[in-house]
Amino acid sequence: MAQLSNDCFVCQQEVIRLVDALGLITERISSVTDSVIIPIEASDGRILAVDVLAPVDLPPFDNSAVDGYAVRYADLNASGESYMRIAARVTAGAQLNVDLPPGSAVRIFTGAPTPAQFDTVFMQEDATEDGENVRLPKGLRCGANRRLAGEDLKRGSIALRAGRRLSPSDIALLAALGRTTVVVRHQLRVALFSTGNEVIPPGRPLEVSKIYDANRFMLRALLERANCMVTDLGILPDSEAAVRRAIVAAADTHDLLVSSGGVSAGDEDHVRAAVASVGSLVFWRVSIKPGRPVAMGVAGGTPFIGLPGNPVAVFVTFALLARPLIARLAGEEYQPPYPVTVVSGFSYEKKAGRREYVRVRLFSRDGAVEAQKHPSDGAGVITSLTQTDGLLELPEHATRIEPGDPVGFLSYAELL
């Protein structure tokens, strides 16, 4: 559980740059979770708590990479094809523990151990069997088509480093090393709530002046995708006292508090005041679009992040700020995705000094990957997320882009 000092952050700026906000997270937040041993089949997405060392060589023995014929390279005819007697046959899972005479070939199959001193393997489609003999072409290099013991990993080397978010390929590596369990970080416990008198849960009749709560459901999915255990506190009214009570109650048993709505400057935006009354507010505006009103602080010793009320802004600020914060708390070695260069297919103007994220779809045009902007810029237009592939990141210094300009693209998959 997170237990931070309420003044663990020092930030005097009312509006800060995204890079400065991320710097505060990196400098002031550390992992708050303990570790647990779990089966490898349950470890997808979990954060590795300790380095994994290879207990064996991988592969554990020299073996053939193809179906074919193993030979001693020194026995080959250097000036032409070689004609050798097939002295033995070895399949995957079998062993060949006999001495073979010089000039012999061994019929071998993929994954089978190569006999001692048989250092080169011809692919079967390049060879021609002739009764008990085989004809082999010239020109193959020494060691071809052979996988050496330990060429993937040497025994005792680091296979996976602590802080890694485990993937299916990592699980394959653990299994290949003979591991059945792995030490991972405990999942973060996150308390989640929405705010707003106008917000109601799906399933109820939609009254005049009410909207369904999309943010909480999106955030729950995003948090669970980030391997968090979520406690859903529901929808809180526009009341400083109600928000404060919920925060105080949740802070003692959770590692992170996440909200949406109520962090702007309106008369009915009470989240910032509630957080400040039980802890400290670090910042509440970041110079990005969409998502300027996003708050971060500490409440009752627990980190808090308050996201905007519009769904697109929620998505963007979660990806840019909440996701790195979660990684830091969870002990994950996290690197934000690097924008991939594509070509703009539209004109766009923006203010200097603000980083903007434009929702786009990608198309292939004249051999290049072109980004086309969604027709709506509104931060409340959810279809601008469902009908696009990712975000163009326009830096603070940019004021205009034109068709054909190189731009940085961040895919939704990479962001999350």
UniProtKB/TrEMBL annotation:
Q: Cite the EC number.
A: 2.10.1.1
Q: Which PROSITE patterns match?
A: MOCF_BIOSYNTHESIS_2 (PS01079)
The coenzyme or cofactor needed here is: Mg(2+)
Pfam families linked to this entry: MoCF_biosynth, MoeA_C, MoeA_N
MoaB/Mog domain residues: 191-328
**Which pathway does it serve?**
Cofactor biosynthesis; molybdopterin biosynthesis
Please state what class of enzyme this protein is: transferase
- Which keywords fit this entry according to its UniProt record? Magnesium, Metal-binding, Molybdenum, Molybdenum cofactor biosynthesis, Plasmid, Transferase
InterPro entries xrefs: MoaB/Mog-like_dom_sf, MoaB/Mog_dom, MoCF_biosynth_CS, MoeA-like, MoeA_C_domain_IV, MoeA_C_domain_IV_sf, MoeA_linker/N, MoeA_linker/N_sf
Q: Which reaction does it catalyse?
A: adenylyl-molybdopterin + molybdate = Mo-molybdopterin + AMP + H(+)
Provide the family line. Answer: Belongs to the MoeA family.
Q: Which PANTHER family match?
A: GEPHYRIN, MOLYBDOPTERIN BIOSYNTHESIS PROTEIN
Q: Which NCBIfam families match?
A: Glp_gephyrin, molyb_syn
> Any idea what job this protein has?
Catalyzes the insertion of molybdate into adenylated molybdopterin with the concomitant release of AMP.
- Entry protein name: Molybdopterin molybdenumtransferase
